[in-house]
């Protein structure tokens, strides 16, 4: 195989990943929230997070947690 082509492909994939996380820095929270909502109660704070911190987090996402904030 041509290692030069493979290294360019790897470099482009890494750069695209860095650009993605630059434009969407909170994507990790979105993924985490989607996994934590499997228990059915998205208003309850996940393990290791205080209720105050969770309320602050929910305040940043009123379109998702609007029913929890009222």
What does this structure look like?
- Helices cover 69% and strands 0% of the residues.
- With 70 residues, it is mainly alpha-helical.
- The chain has one domain.
Summarize this structure briefly.
By secondary structure, the chain is mainly alpha-helical.
List the helices and strands and how they pair.
Elements: H1 3-23, H2 27-36, H3 51-59, H4 62-69
Protein structure class: mainly alpha
Along the chain, the helix and strand elements come as: HHHH
The mean pLDDT is 84
Number of separate strands? 0
Structure keywords:
70 residues, mainly alpha, 4 helices, elongated
